Amino acid sequence: MTKSSTQDFLQIDQIKKGIVILKNRSLRGIIMVSSLNFALKADDEKSAIIYQFQNFLNSLDFSCQILIQSRRLNITGYLEKLSNIEKEQENELLQIQTAGYREFVESLVKAGTIMNKSFFVIVPFTLLEAKKEETKKLFRAPELPVLTEEKFQRCKTQLEQRMQFVTLGLRRCGLKSVLLNTSEIIELFWGLHHPDQAEIGYYPEIPPEFEE
């Protein structure tokens, strides 16, 4: 019996020039978005943000996916610093207080109370959207469309235009955003499939050819 590898279950075919290419030949661009503390805003500001976000959603003529990634905050370095302060503390009372504070922070992290959240917007583009004349041909073909370098560059340009449109709309809502490059996308997907290692800050070394 043939054993299946992990890659057989992934929809990703390759990551090229900051673009995710799926096995069905469709493309995905990933935008990392900042957050804002909505609860601390005044009522007028809240209304303005909601209004701008509604306008942004209504302006889209393509689908988008919003991904929220929650991970326990890695504060290993901070805890080590507290341990050193505790050991070097000459005052016994301050040493006890430092130890108590360190244990309190450790308990918060273990309980999952301190979380680090990252926000992403995933923008799609398919070969069927490239040209109407190509669409007719692709509908007749039973096999997957061939993604030539010329088609990839053309689709990549149109996908990047969509991503710029999304970043502009988010900027009007008071959110900063950045387009992920190849190495950053690899780290993102690696972290999704290796959450325990990612939480302690370990990521594999990425070959130079992927650092775009």
Please describe what this structure looks like.
This protein is an alpha+beta fold. The longest helix has 24 residues. The protein is flat. It folds into two domains: about 160 residues, no CATH class; about 40 residues. The protein has seven helices and six strands. The two termini are about 40 Å apart. Strands 1, 2, 3, 4, 5 and 6 form a six-stranded antiparallel sheet that branches. A hairpin with a 2-residue loop joins strand 1 and strand 2. About 0% of the residues have low confidence. Helix content is about 45%, strand content about 20%.
Reconstruct the topology from this structure.
Blueprint: E1 12-16, E2 19-22, E3 27-33, H1 43-59, E4 65-72, H2 76-88, H3 92-110, E5 115-125, H4 132-140, H5 149-172, E6 177-179, H6 182-193, H7 195-199
Antiparallel strand pairs: 1-2, 2-3, 3-5, 3-6, 4-5
